[in-house]
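Final paragraph of the annual report: two paired records, presented back to back.
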Amino acid sequence: MARTAAPSAGSALVRRRAPRRQRRHRPQDLDALVVRTLDEHGRIHVLINNAGQGFYSPVADTDLDLYRRILEINLLAPLAAMQKVLPSMRRRGRGSIINVSSGASLGVSPTTGAYSSTKAALNQLTAVARAELAPEGITVSLIHPYLTESEFNKALLGGDPISAPAVAPQHSAEHVASSIMDLIRSGDEVTVLRPA
């Protein structure tokens, strides 16, 4: 069942522990992060795969090396992270994995082919993982933010940033975080954050 979330005023995110950030997919860093988390907390309850890299270019002009780089970040890194936390979740017989996709994967927009195709692949990977892991008590969910206030456009590998139209302003990072927390609690399959 898909959920649609509208922006809410005054949303707040309460954190019990500071989040761990992983900027770049390097297997040794991921191994160290999981080991450190298990050493400090004894278990992993939730994994949020929020890494993403943008690259905008017409399909005919897409640089294959840059495309491979965003495939690594947008698809392979989330898969690797899921594989690393699954042993801990399986031992406990429960857990929650949230993969952050993009509203760009739900439509067709010129110059977004490389980026949106990596997120569309993440959508399918998430759906399959949800079906495979549900019998083990592990919930795998997907959230589709559209444009979010962040550094994303400043870190593009190529192409021009896509700006939010005045009639559909960006969501705040706090709103997206609050929606992710709601998704963890509900265990819904998909949440789509429609533009305001």
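The closing record of the year follows.
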Amino acid sequence: MPTGGRQDHGVVFYARDDELVGQVTEYLLGAMRTGGVGVTLATPSHRTAVEQRLEQAGINLMAARAYGSYVALDPEEVISRFMINGFADPAGFWSALAPVIKRAAKRRGKVAVFGEMVALLWDRDLASAAVDLEALWNELASQYSFSLLCAYPAELLRSSGHADELLEVVAAHTHCGAQGSSGEDALARSSADPLGDA
């Protein structure tokens, strides 16, 4: 039976791809090395880099995929299943992701999910949809036990055009982190007055 609740839902605002890849690799290894499952919904370049790091760390990805301890999903394909006319459809989201998380959660170990769908939506000026997607992840976490790490490129958050949505993004997470000065600036803005001067 599902055993959800308030789960570990983190976000990182990153300035350098290599730093993000290193953090994501360690995050996934924390689950996979203890009998759990690592799930990625990463951009192609990040997925390739993370998989290279996993293999360098001693993970046999072919075996991990076959065994179900590593699952790589195409974020664009998943997005196409729940985005309708610029809005995130809850039924489509659950249909696309609940079976994956449910299957992974049946294992005894931790389930660690890394996702970049929110950043892809934000990059398309669909900030409100990104906020809705964060909320949908939290609803899914109320039903199934898993941790989630989201990532946003810091440069996407420099504009004050989506200050309110930025506050909502931060509020949707249990903890936030930043890498580099650009990421720290973006995170600092999340606590500033969204109506103030940028």
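The chain has a mean pLDDT of 85. This concludes the annual technical report; the extension proposal builds directly on these records.
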